[in-house]
Amino acid sequence: MAESTFFRSEEMSLIQLYIPAEVAQPTVSELGELGLVQFRDLNPDVNAFQRAFVGEIRRFDEMERQLRFFTSQIEKAEIPVRTTLTNSYSSRARSRQELDDLEERLSEHENRLLQMNNSHETMQRRYLELTELKHVLRETSDFFQEAASHQTDIRNSFDEPSAPLLDDLEAGPSDAQGSGLQLGNVTGVIPRNKMQTFERILWRSLRGNLYMNTAEIDEPVIDPSTDVVVEKNVFIIFAHGREILAKIKKIAESLGATLYPIDSSADRRREALLDVVRHIEEFNSVLVNTTQTRRQELMRISENLVAWMIIVKKEKATYHTMNHFNYDINRKCLIAEGWCPTNEINTIQTALRGVTERSGSMVPSILNELKTHKEPPTYHKTNKFTAGFQGIVDAYGMAKYREVNPGLFTVISFPFLFAVMFGDVGHGILVLLAGLYLCLNERKLAHVDGEMFQMVFGGRYIVLLMGAFSIFTGMMYNDIFSRTLPWFQTGWEFHVPDNHKAGNVIIAQPNGHTYPFGIDYAWHGTENYLLFTNSYKMKMSIILGVIHMSFGICMVYQNAKFYRKPIDIIGGFIPQMMFMQCLFGYLTLMILYKWTVNWFETDAAGDKLYPGQGFVQGLLVLIALICIPWMLFLKPYYLKWEHGKARAMGYHQPSEHNVRVSTDSTRSEEAAGAVVAEEVEGEHEFDFGEELIHQVIHTIDFCLGCISNTASYLRLWALSLAHAQLSEVLWGMTLGKAWGMPLPLDWAFSGALRAFMTIFMFSMWFSLTIFILVGMEGLSAFLHALRLHWVEFNSKFYIGTGYAFQPFSFAAVLSEKDS
Fold first, then answer.
1. Rg (Cα) of the chain, in Å, rounded?
2. Does 112 score more than 70 pLDDT?
3. Which residues contact 188 (CB under 8 A, 6 or more apart)?
4. CA angle 11, 14, 17 (to 5 degrees)
5. CB 213 within 8 A of CB 198
6. Rounded distance between C-alpha atoms, residue 50 and residue 439, angstroms
7. Cα dist. 778→421, 457, 507, 726 in Å?
8. Which of 26, 245, 666, 688 has the lowest CB atom count within 10 Å?
9. In 649-746, which ranges are continuous DSSP H helix?
10. Is residue 482 predicted with pLDDT exceeding 80?
11. Cβ distance 294 to 113 under 8 Å?
12. How many angstroms separate the CA atoms of 61 and 464, rounded?
């Protein structure tokens, strides 16, 4: 049994379970609580509607629908939901009787709630009608009085049907006055936003043969179907003729108006108004009682809603998983297969025995470990600290089973490379404080919604380390908000002559001291500071890049040794390492050699760094050229030779890539008790041409990649330079101007002005530092560090063709949000 480490993924085993049918549900539920088994679907060709437990899943779908209905009603009523549950209550499996009782209880709650909702909506609609009728009766008395005042303007229009109902002011009174013309009316309520459209349609369709008056309803009117406040107007339309009145009614109803018949008698309207007011008061008391009863029902539901949701989700997931199983011939037990960590097999067996004892079953569940040729899933056991770094690696590609996990090295290399580009003590402290806040308040912040925030919160320990490493590199650069940190005694002295003139260059002289840590602060502010730091950071980037990539090539050896592929060491690791070191390793040594030489004491007039430099460099280039055909041809021809040798011995395929479990009698003792999985993955036939093309592509990619990837590490220098220069420019444009501005002679005024400018410029400097130098520059450095790990480092050894271990886990089921 392999030891659990973060260097490689966990060792996995394919297990087979024989579960008695009477304890299948509690057994699978217990495995869901453990979250250690990824079950395989043993019925891939069976339709989802033809599986064994489709009836149970439909039953829990219906219960889940009811719970979603309860949730929407509770949220609508703004009732708090109880979320505290004991572990024993939420974790244990439910019996069939408990599930039947729960289903019946949910149905009763739903029926009562639907009945109350329908009754409440019916009463609300009736209350709305009475409210609108009350406003109509109140406003129409004024409308009738206003219409009566225009009675002298009304005339008959039998001879001219297109003539307007009311005379224009220029035409004077009509000849038909006094004929006793009786006008009909249409009254009702219409939404205010449709009022203008309503008027235009009436005017154009009736050609002005109407008299209309409107008034706004000040009281808020709530639509019972949507619970939205709707603004409405009361209207009354006078016209003559049945056809015209019918036409008006159709137009009004088409625009969503509600019509109310109103008697022309003032006394009857007054009596109707009193009757409506009395009914409204009665409906008010009934509505209050109904609302209170409905709220009490919802409060009773809310006390157990979370518990019910957990039960239903768990049971539904349990039966969905059981649909992946097969029945035996007698249909007395279920057969399941799945992957689990080898180290956790004893834990699973203990859980199975516990379920058997609790249920009182006489037949225990049986666990067999299968031998298979299938590639297991990749499972890296992480904690809250390493999960973020592992997520960076998994985003590039899931590691092949048991290959070297780059996540282990990413814990250190990622924040370090970020800090090389972001190096500043002040900015690092701000990032560190942000990471500390996220880490110290992780329990409270874990429940905060928001995709962007959760992404940052998941990498809180990455942020913490990035801040800590940025402080370290900022001390190496001797940089805090573009200012210096005079920690130790400088190694340079500036001797200013007596006859020194402004603008003349002063050359510093070494005083014998060596600055013990980082860059000497005496370099800051000098004319050749940028030239010095450019050279220093550029060469440092090359050195870090060569070390990083060389370490990645070393992982090729680790993978080849683990998978027992000596050809990958001889035809891969050795020529790749020699090619890398002959060209770029030598370059790194020359940079370090030049740094160790005191050029003040050495005559550097020649173009040779050491005797025999030309011969050594020519030899290294020749070795690098030899490594190219070495990488290109050795592995394909070796595989071809091995394939021919295997065929000559009677084997169809060589055993280079797959370890097989033999059932030969000569190895019967070794295979005793081992169950061989029946399904064997298909193996493609060896093709020398395909293998040679693959190796050509890999060789070209490696050789050209060594050059381009080494140059790619120069982004460490470029971003570090840009970050330092932006910080210096921001300081000079804000606080530098505030403290360096000329002041007037009035000391009191100059002091107040300087204080005001300092406060104003400091606020600008701090805000721009947070948003630009820490936020935008930090994001840029993060993305570049991500690229260096994904492309430059991982491409040297990382296969990344695996698939993730996704066990059946109730924790994962409950964390999924409803779609």
1. 42
2. yes
3. 136, 234, 235, 252, 257, 258, 259, 260
4. 135
5. no
6. 49
7. 9, 16, 36, 13
8. 666
9. 688-712, 715-733, 735-740
10. yes
11. yes
12. 44
